[in-house]
From TrEMBL:
Reactions mediated catalytically: N-succinyl-(2S,6S)-2,6-diaminopimelate + H2O = (2S,6S)-2,6-diaminopimelate + succinate
Protein name, per record: Succinyl-diaminopimelate desuccinylase
Job description of the protein: Catalyzes the hydrolysis of N-succinyl-L,L-diaminopimelic acid (SDAP), forming succinate and LL-2,6-diaminopimelate (DAP), an intermediate involved in the bacterial biosynthesis of lysine and meso-diaminopimelic acid, an essential component of bacterial cell walls.
Entry keyword annotation includes Ligase: no
UniProt GO BP: diaminopimelate biosynthetic process; L-arginine biosynthetic process; lysine biosynthetic process via diaminopimelate
Positions of the catalytic residues: 70, 135
Necessary cofactors: Zn(2+); Co(2+)
Cofactor note: Binds 2 Zn(2+) or Co(2+) ions per subunit.
PROSITE patterns listed in its UniProt record: ARGE_DAPE_CPG2_2
Alphabetical UniProt keywords: Amino-acid biosynthesis, Cobalt, Diaminopimelate biosynthesis, Hydrolase, Lysine biosynthesis, Metal-binding, Zinc
EC number, as in UniProt: 3.5.1.18
Gene from which the chain derives: dapE
Any GO MF annotation of the entry: acetylornithine deacetylase activity
Gene3D superfamilies: Zn peptidases (3.40.630.10)
């Protein structure tokens, strides 16, 4: 039996060892596939990162498939049952690094689009691909730069489908319609180093900071809302001391992270943290790193089309969720685009023996097709 289109595309992509930020020709392969379907191909290279913007059509609305061709490193090859960059089919499961995150989804995008433009050559609006090779890395020269380029020429995405593996047990059971924000604080609290036997000559920053840390750790930041769990504060790293048992440390370092809901802004969180530290009379330095603003695509045509497509193809009622880590959706949503993440089951992503059920990729492709049909074909 010959491979289906989805399977052969997925295999072709997995066979390319595109460990972030390498692309290894994945995007060229996509471009060669999309150009004959009527797409205008625009490679966008920024430093070490290869990106692809491909668009068919010049009018709105724009339905965009977004994703990444890079993968995380395979890890120790001897821990894999099959070589990580040799796509291997065993009992209906396709094994290889990137099978689930997210070369499988890209194969499903491509097959869905080929079928759609064949069936509906005169569809409405445009279909686009926004693909990067820097999603698993520092995400500097990938999607943010492409979005900047599009914004500069006022090219807008109406609906964006990110192929990140959103599903939990069955394909389509969970769709991400937003993500929490992520904000990291690097705090240094200053004391005065000294001998533990002469505490009156020193100031212990651990003791000084403890009540403030307690307040930060126990504070109810918000109650979340319909779409988001409550904002959470977590200490990730804490360090003080010289290693000697007779020295009061001079400094305390605390690194903490907020995963926050749309009830708060990063500015509000920063202000509240600084108020607490100041109220406790601490001498401190605090550096903030914002890795992503929260975003939410509530009700709307894209959410409706996604729910309907999943129901029609799988019979499942999908669950809308904002849990999990960040994704490139956070860079696309601020342009005003509606953003949904829908991809295969995420049980094995970033692990050894990463795999995806081939039947799930076919199902995904059918769901993507169904969504385009709802959004880009006039029903009268
Ligand atoms: Zn991914």
């Amino acid at each position: 039996m010959t491979d289906s289109l989805v399977l052969s595309l997925a295999k072709d992509l997995i066979a390319r060892p595109s460990v972030t930020p390498a692309d290894e020709g994945c995007q060229q392969m996509m471009a060669d596939f999309l150009a004959p379907l009527g797409f205008t191909i625009e490679p966008l290279v920024f430093h070490d990162t290869t990106n692809l913007w491909a668009r068919k059509g010049t009018t709105g609305p724009v339905f965009c498939f977004a994703g990444h061709t890079d993968v995380v490193p395979a890890g120790p090859a001897e821990k894999w049952n099959t070589p990580p960059f040799e796509p291997t089919l065993i009992d209906g499961m396709l094994y290889g690094r990137g099978a689930a995150d997210m070369k499988g989804s890209i194969a499903s995008f491509m097959a869905a689009v080929q079928r759609f433009v064949t069936d509906h050559p005169d569809h409405q609006g445009s279909i686009a691909f926004l693909i990067t090779s820097d999603e698993e890395g520092p995400f500097i020269n990938g999607t943010p730069k492409v979005v900047e380029t599009l914004e500069a020429r006022q090219e807008k995405i109406t609906w964006c489908l990110v192929g990140e593996p959103s599903s939990t047990a069955h394909v389509g059971d969970v769709v991400k319609n937003g993500r929490r924000g992520s904000l990291t604080g690097d705090l240094t609290v200053f004391g005065i180093q000294g001998h533990v036997a002469y505490p009156h000559l020193a100031e212990n920053p651990v003791h000084l900071a403890a009540p403030a840390i307690y307040e930060l750790a126990t504070k109810q930041w918000d109650n979340g809302n319909e779409f988001f769990p409550a904002t959470s504060f977590q200490i990730a790293n804490i360090n003080a001391g010289t290693g000697a048992s007779n020295v009061i440390p001079g400094e305390l370092q605390v690194q903490f992270n907020f995963r926050y809901s749309t009830e708060l802004t990063d500015e509000q969180i920063k202000q509240q943290v600084e108020d607490i530290l100041t109220r406790h009379g601490l001498r401190y330095e605090l550096k903030w790193t914002l890795s992503g603003q929260p975003f939410l695509t509530g009700s709307g045509k894209l959410v409706e089309a996604t729910q309907r497509a999943i129901k029609a193809i799988t019979g499942r009622e999908t669950e809308l969720s904002t849990s999990g880590g960040t994704s490139d959706g956070r860079f696309i949503a601020p342009t005003g685009a509606q953003v949904i993440e829908l991809g295969p089951v995420n049980a094995t992503i970033h692990k050894v023996n990463e795999c995806v059920r081939v039947a799930d990729l076919e199902t995904l492709s059918d769901i993507y097709y169904h969504m385009m049909q709802q959004l880009l074909v006039k029903h009268d």
